[in-house]
Design goal:
It is a single chain. By secondary structure, this protein is mainly β. It has three domains: 180 residues, Jelly Rolls (Sandwich), CATH 2.60.120; 92 residues, Sandwich (Immunoglobulin-like), CATH 2.60.40.10; 118 residues, Immunoglobulin-like. It contains one helix and 35 strands. The strands form eight sheets. Strands 26, 27, 29, 30, 31, 33, 34 and 35 form an eight-stranded mixed sheet that branches. A six-stranded antiparallel sheet has the order 1-2-14-11-16-3, with no helix packed on it. The longest helix is centred in the first third of the chain and has 6 residues. The chain starts with 13 loop residues before the first strand and ends with a strand.
Length: 407
């Protein structure tokens, strides 16, 4: 059986030689990264040993760690864990009986990988049977003294250009049986650049029926330049509104007319070593739109609709009374609205009536004012409607409607 020793994890971050490294308890989730494999363990990786020998790595198998290989050289079974795309290697297919019993010399594997631009983050996933120390460009980034059953993960900042990975590995003493006490190393480096995506709206609040312009701005050098913009109304489902390739400036735009208060978001799937990204949600509040008009009358003077005084403007007919119609869009039939009636009193407007009325099923308020004396002649009046808002639409106030009664 293979020997195991207690795990050893780096406890501090290292900042040496331009390499920043820190241990992770687990690898980054696959959904968060779209990583480009920079290097992985494979036959042909060069090695040197402290017994003076050197050579090229070969696949190690026919042991308890890797019982067999498939056509691509990956283990089909055994106690060793797998790292996708990486092969278990050693300087020989299996250790000698003496190495199995006494331990192997330290074997240092050297690999290189290329980084074409700054700003990337590299992730090393690695394990060995039994010990390893890993360094990049001469700076140690991780080590383990015998935890082959667990894949360790380290992140570091690579240099632009060629980077050199060195891994010093050794197999500890065990049973004098190469099958039961094998040696092996497996690793993979992925380099990822972090995309950024932002979403903006031309306005945070819009009146119903008017438009807003949404812009998603992407920073990524991936060949994949496709961004998706979504909208989710209050109490509704999230829906795709537009999906397309950003322009030369990295922008995808869409002009919309939201029917109710909506939160918009944007997403980018990444690719070619660039991470996926999502934009912080942008909420656009929709305000109801009032329309208001006077009904009847004989002329308009400035803001005022003029009505002739008439004895018919009283019960039971109310003919010829100052009248108007208010409509709220979108439809809010049955909702309560505040009607504010005012008259001009010397130097200011004074409220004389402020009832709560319900909108009809057509989202209308029809109102009129009646009188029974000629004292109203020449006075100035006005009225407006106020909707208090609900979950889908913000409060909205109509324009004032003005009128006067004349002879």
């Amino acid at each position: 059986m293979m020997t195991r020793h207690s795990l050893h994890a780096m406890a501090t971050a290292l900042v040496l030689g331009g390499v920043l490294a820190a241990p992770l308890t687990s690898a980054a989730p696959a959904s968060a990264l779209s990583a480009a494999c920079a290097a992985s363990s494979r036959p042909g990786v060069t090695w040197t040993a402290d017994d003076g020998t050197d050579g090229a790595a070969v696949l190690t198998y026919d042991n308890v760690g890797c019982t067999g290989l498939d056509a691509d050289g990956f283990c089909t079974g055994g106690a060793w864990p797998t790292i996708p795309g990486a092969h278990w290697i050693w300087r020989t297919q299996n250790v000698t009986p003496d190495e199995a019993a006494s331990g192997t010399p330290v074997v240092t594997f050297t690999d290189t990988f290329q980084v074409g631009q700054a700003g990337g983050t590299s992730t090393l996933r690695i394990t060995a049977d039994d010990q390893y120390t890993a360094s990049v460009n001469g700076t140690q980034i991780g080590s383990d003294d015998g935890g082959y059953s667990t894949v360790d993960t380290y992140r570091f900042t690579p240099e632009v250009g060629v980077n050199t990975l060195t891994i010093a590995a050794v197999s500890n003493p065990g049973p004098a049986d190469p099958y039961s006490s094998p040696a092996g190393l497996v690793y993979r480096i992925d380099t990822t650049w972090h995309s950024s995506l932002s979403l903006t709206s031309s306005r945070p609040t819009v009146t119903y029926g008017r438009s807003v312009l949404l812009k998603a701005d992407l920073t990524s050098s991936s060949a994949n330049r496709t961004v998706a913009i979504y909208g989710q109304p209050v109490g509704g489902r999230k829906a795709l509104l537009k999906k397309g390739v950003v322009d030369s400036a990295g922008t995808l735009s869409v002009r919309l007319r939201p029917r109710s208060t909506t939160t918009y978001s944007a997403a980018y799937t990444g690719g070619d070593g660039w991470s996926a990204a999502s934009a912080k949600g942008v909420r656009v509040t929709v305000v109801g739109r009032w329309s208001a008009r006077s009904v009847g009358g004989y002329a308009t003077q400035g803001n005022y609709r003029l009505y002739h005084w008439t004895k018919a403007c009283r019960a039971p007919d109310y003919r010829g009374c100052p009248s108007r119609v208010f409509r709220l869009a979108p439809d809010h039939g049955g909702a309560k609205v505040r009607m504010t009636f005012q008259y001009w009193k010397g130097s200011h407007w004074t409220t004389f009536y402020s009832p709560l009325w319900r909108l009809t099923k057509d989202s209308l308020i029809r109102s009129f004012n009646y009188y029974d004396t000629r004292d109203v002649i020449g006075h100035k009046f006005r009225v407006l409607a106020t909707f208090g808002g609900d979950a889908n639409h913000a409060s909205a106030t109509s324009a004032w409607v003005y009128w006067k009664v004349t002879n």
